[in-house]
From TrEMBL, chain A:
GO terms for molecular function: structural constituent of ribosome. Keywords: Ribonucleoprotein, Ribosomal protein. One of its GO terms (cellular component) is mitochondrial large ribosomal subunit. The keyword Ribonucleoprotein applies. Coiled coil: none annotated. It comes from Rhynchophorus ferrugineus. This is Large ribosomal subunit protein uL3m.
From TrEMBL, chain B:
One of its GO terms (biological process) is translation. It comes from the Eukaryota. Belongs to the bacterial ribosomal protein bL19 family. This is Large ribosomal subunit protein bL19m. Keywords: Mitochondrion, Ribonucleoprotein, Ribosomal protein, Transit peptide. It is found in: Mitochondrion. InterPro entries: Ribosomal_bL19 (IPR001857), Ribosomal_bL19_sf (IPR038657), Translation_prot_SH3-like_sf (IPR008991). It comes from Rhynchophorus ferrugineus (Red palm weevil). One of its GO terms (cellular component) is mitochondrial large ribosomal subunit.
Amino acid sequence: MALALNIVSRTSHSISVLEQQMQKLSLVVFNSKREKHLNPKPRLRNPTWLVRKTRSHTDDPITFENREFIKEIVQDKLVQSNHAIDEIATNNVIWTPNIQRTGVIARKIGVYPLWLKNGSKMQTTLLQILDNHVIKYYTPDNYKPHKEIRPKVYNKKGCILLGAEFGDPSNFTKDYCGLFKESGVLPTKWLARFFVSPEGALPLGATISARHFQVGNYVDVRGKTIDRGFQGVMKRHGFKGMPASHGVTKTHRRGGNIGGGGEKARVWPGTKMPGHMGNTYRVAKGLKVLRLNTKYNVIWVSGQAIPGETNSIVYVYDTKIPTRTPTNPLPLPTLLQQTDEDVPEDIYDESIHIFSDPTIIFNEK
Amino acid sequence: MLSIFSKRPCIKCFSETSKILLRCSSQTATSTIERNKDQLKRQIVEYRHVYPEFLPDPKIEYRNLIREKLERADMVARRTQVDIPEFYVGSILAVTSSDRHNPEKPHRFVGICIKREYCGLRASFIVRNMIDHQGIEIMYNMYDPTIHKVEVLRLEKRLDDELLYLRDALPEYSTFDSNMDAEILPEGTPVPINPIKVKLKPRPWLERWERKNLKGIEELDLPERFFKRAKELEKPWEKYDLMKEYMRTIPEEEQIEIFSEVQAELHKLEVQRKKMKRKRVIVKPSKLA
């Protein structure tokens, strides 16, 4: 027995000695300049707010009364946070084209036509601006992007984290609810990040309405496209396919040739082939705001090809197309809502025919 | 119950009578609400045929309550400017709209309505007529602000929901006089159904009409194999598909909700239209004389 123990201790000792020696060796190896890329830093780091959102459902041993009590408390808090008064610091900075304002989280609620005053029909998409709340703000020096691209950035932007649509806090994880501690807003279902100039920064808990945007200006809309799954070349890239008859067999919807022979003897990268279609973020740029509804916070935007299905979440911000920047100054950081102000329910662009106006008659010119 | 209460003689002391009166008043209130509901229900049964475009999209994934509300408000706003009467596929219409190529004179087109489709502001209908031996069809958007007037010259239905087969029928079935006078139906009569059977031209056709199970066409003169194939392709079980029916239609509770929102406005417009109609009836004989 004693002998066996002795052997075990001796072997373990020898192993530890070996390990130490190996570690020394490895240190030497990894500290050398030649091998510094063997264990590189991660290129992409998730932002701090990207935490697990929903918690797994468990049947907690709570009595019915307590469950009701929790619901009541959540309801009370909802009412409170809806009435949170905005305190937007008016620093009296007038908007200039190089100042970037925040965007908003919106929901695509459908497509319907509007008519212009010249009688032509125009398809428009309706975007409902949700109850956006500011949850976090990182100053330009404070915000560290996950990927440093350039050594020096001029005109550095801060970062605003917005949340929209209150959810039931008992369904979210503790980490996720912790994000909202600083701002005092109830946990929201959706989060979005927007870069803003320091002049466009908003205080925590501030809300943004549809009148953040103005009629006649242009916006970009970012959304997740409809997931169409694995699709063939005809649907995915609009190929023509091949004839249905005249001796064609088994190649009616196929792509055909994908590369030349000879010296190339390979498939060029980026060749259009079948594959997964949709479910990616896309931006529809330069869409005109044609109409605003202040009651339901809805904006009408030109075009019907906005990424995403009806009732999906999209992100709306001032356009980045340089030729479509607005000429009139925009409300900075966002429009202050006064209670005593008389706001019309619908605000129309000049070119739009209002439905309650008389029938269009063409004048001879 | 109500009638019994009201007819009861009040001989007893004051407090009792007051009690009875109170009960009476509460009952009348509830009964009036119920009566209004009944009336609304009865109206809505008609509304779903008269204003089919007010109902939401049959595709569930396209629906959104707020969008539909805004859309309905816009539709009612347009209806205050132009009178869009009740009409069906098979009715004969005269549509007057401003023409950008002839700004002086609005364009009037008379013809038979062969199709109505879509819902909301994108609702549209197709009007067909033969002009100089040439079949002409115009698709109008119902809420297009260039439309001045929609007149119903003959209000009737046909045996089918779509009359697209008139494109392959003999020309006399889609020829209508553009100076036709409006035929006025007496108030309260149900919409007549025209049981006319149309004779189609010989093949080739635009569609395979023998496969469509049409009721408004005469017996087709085709070889046996056409009917055999049509028999193979028909889906007689579809009318028993409850799920399909459910997805296609909007439940009555939702319909009541939708129409009760716009009912007041629509009723006002209807009353206005009736007044105008009466005026027109009186004016007519003086013109003739």
